[in-house]
From TrEMBL:
Species of the source: Salix suchowensis
Protein name: Cationic amino acid transporter C-terminal domain-containing protein
Record's keyword annotation contains Transmembrane helix: yes
InterPro entries in UniProt: AA/rel_permease1 (IPR002293), CAT_C (IPR029485)
Bias (Polar residues) ranges: 1-27
Localization annotation: Membrane
UniProt keyword terms in alphabetical order: Membrane, Transmembrane, Transmembrane helix
Keyword DNA damage part of the UniProt annotation: no
Membrane topology of the entry: Multi-pass membrane protein
Amino acid sequence: MTQIQPSTETNQPLLYHHNNSNPTMDVQDSPRKSYWRCSKQEFFPEPSFKDLSSYRTALSQICPRLKDRLLSRSTETHELVTLRRESENPMKKCLTWWDLMWMSFGSVVGSGIFVITGQEARENAGPAIVLSYALSGFSALLSVFCYTEFAVEIPVAGGSFSYLRVELGDFIAYLAAGNILLEAVIGAAGLGRSWSSYFASMINTKNPDFMRIKIASFADGFNLLDPLAVVVLLVANSIAMSGTKRTSFLNWIASIATAFIIVFIIVVGLIHLKSSNLVPYFPNGAEGVFKSAAVVYWAYTGFDMVATMAEETKNPSRDIPIGLVGSMSIITVVYCLMALALTGMVKYTEIDPNAAFSVAFAQIGMKWATYLVSICALKGMTTSLMVGSLGQGRYTTQIARSHMIPPWFARVHPKTGTPIYATLLTTILSAIVAFFTSLDVLSSVFSFSTLLIFMLLAVALLVRRYYVKDVISKNDSVTFFVCLFTIAGSSIGVAALWNSGVRGWIGYVVASVIWCSGTLGISLLHKNRVPKAWGVPLVPWLPSLSIAMNVFLLGSLGHVAFLRFIICSAVMILYYLVVGVHATYDVAHQDPKETEAEVGR
């Protein structure tokens, strides 16, 4: 087999042509195929789907194939080198730490800080909402650490999907992939609905639904059709498809303008701060702080989309840690200062839960500043949609590269360097959901998927550091998994105690001691892998704490969220049994004589 290297004499891209009988890597002198081609062979090139007879044969072998997929784990070389052939054209390495930092800012700082701060300060935490933001920010930062190490070590477009596929196996990664796509579709749809609601409320404060079309015959939660949300989604996603660097430029221009408005809000708020407004600081005790922390956590989500941009980052080992960890640290401080400014300007009992900052400025005689708040919120949702569209497209691309969905969606356009098909898929699905579905129906499903992936990623990081197959001894392997299950079990125990209303300290102390013993047990094991460039500090303590905090937040969701998650997962597993397991099995078991040499850099 001959290893084919990129030519050093031309800047033209390599073309990767998928052919089941003879995979090859052709350079530019081969005839270029149309990007817009479409056929059954393009969607299902695997032998199992060649004809009806082949598919019947595949279904008859479902048990051994499923066993193979359950026990298989991908490799870094496979994710970094082999799967990129499916895209035919490379993504453009055009991003620096500056781009990533503002992408994170634009993706995370949306409408959440303006909407939920007033609600939670008035109903639960009071002035201690500052501590709620600090706790949630710390939890989010733990997940950022895990994402950053993986993104530096495995800089591919798939983000958490690729990381889990390498460390936890094909089937777990598939469930994560399904939840990633679910999160992408629901998250974008929710933002589209939020954008239209906020815009409508600026025009008619008494009826934020006046721009929606009500269909009385439809069920509640699905009976307010929202054409404006569809338009907003199409515009934002079209910008993302036009080019990564262009989207990044528009994002950081808008985000810098937002940063100045936020600084203005903080400075004015602190100038008009009255210490009497901060008393009592804990009107509902620690319980109020924790309840609010579980809610305001959603103001920090979005950074995982930025991690998917690793494949387009010029220097991942330097740019990703600065861009992700740096931006999230700054955002946490900004959120705490904004919460302090709000509760300092207005007594928490007098905060308007629907328009907290706008009403607060009006109460101190600055009605004109309410327009700044509105512009800032709309801008935040717009940049969240643009950056989210970039991340959703990259997630979908890597999932398609693995053949868990048709590889047709993995193609990268030769001119824009963006995965147009993958982005269109999530755009169309999001637009359909946003057109029909209300925000309250969307939020609980989105929350569960996000937290589950964050928790699994912390588990994957521990597996990566300690469990290296054929290196770790049998005794250490048993010890590791016993300790890992101990950590998970004690974390579930704390969440169960809290949500059952138990407030005595004995149960929490016992669960905490068990958690500490499990984490200590892992820390005494030998680390069989160390990061090459950047790593999470204080392993295993920080990843273990991330597991505990994400499980705790998962437990705070209602039973309806669990039920919807179970139903969605059942549908995903059905698809996997019918399509996914056969496609990935065929790809994993290609004749090695027909597969070209794969060499990681």
